[in-house]
Amino acid sequence: MKTLSIIVLITATFLLFQKSRTPTVSTITGDAMGTTWSLRCEDAEQYRPLVYRILSEQENILSHWRANSEISRLNAGQITEVSTELKRAINLAEHFKAETRGAFDHTLLRQTQAAGFAPLLATEKHNYDLSAMAKGYCIDLLTATLREHGLINFVIELGGECYASGTQDDGTPWPVLIPSPTGGEGVTVYLSNQAIATSGNYQQVAKIENKLISSHLIAPNTGKPHLAKPSSVSIIANDCATADAYATALFINPKLVLPENTKAITLPETKP
């Protein structure tokens, strides 16, 4: 009887310990690449150093806001040989430019500078600007790395672009809010193993007397800011780089044919 009591006590203690150790879903946030990021998953805090490391590495490679980043040094003609990582990103951008027939264009840095949405760094040699896909590209790197570390169910977000992996605890897809470009209610979509990215002219813009005079979105055919009523285009795709690039491309060219397994959600201007 004493032995049985000990076994019962040990079992109860073990179950109590297991219950106290049950992972809880939480959200962590941080700053990187001139914007914010968030990760929602079980025991999210343990992944903070990993997220910071990857985003810091990519910022040192891809940021045109940093004079000493690899892409800035390439643009300035300070280097001719580039890392495998930067070459991979540029090749992907060239793929998107070809697929969108130029609606996505990663060679408009001087035009973006002229519009006031990029720093006036030296760009004598090249004109690369990967900002229209950089966040999505980084999200894909983070997604792959988190999965390599055994994480299955999570949402990783950077500057509004995100990937929803797996499901919530109850097996349902993750809810993701698409903000309204005019401050309205927005639209909620439900994603599982999908990415979403949004492009619009309602945030990074310049106005005089409430009139739009400049935008960070450059029309490749004119080289000038793409001016339109406040609106946004969101793309749902299997990876975030594709979603990011096509969100920009479709905003520039609304008649663009999307690839398979992608979906567009457009939020036009609405009257209050």
TrEMBL record:
Catalytic activity: L-threonyl-[protein] + FAD = FMN-L-threonyl-[protein] + AMP + H(+)
Family matches, as Pfam families: ApbE
InterPro entries with a match to the protein in the record: ApbE (IPR024932), ApbE-like_sf (IPR003374)
Cofactor(s) in the UniProt record: Mg(2+)
Keyword Cytoplasm in annotation: no
Keyword Transferase: yes
EC number: 2.7.1.180
Alphabetical UniProt keywords: FAD, Flavoprotein, Magnesium, Metal-binding, Transferase
GO molecular function: metal ion binding; transferase activity
Uppermost EC category: transferase
PANTHER family: FAD:PROTEIN FMN TRANSFERASE, THIAMINE BIOSYNTHESIS LIPOPROTEIN APBE
Protein name per the record: FAD:protein FMN transferase
Lineage: Bacteria, Pseudomonadati, Verrucomicrobiota, Verrucomicrobiia, Verrucomicrobiales
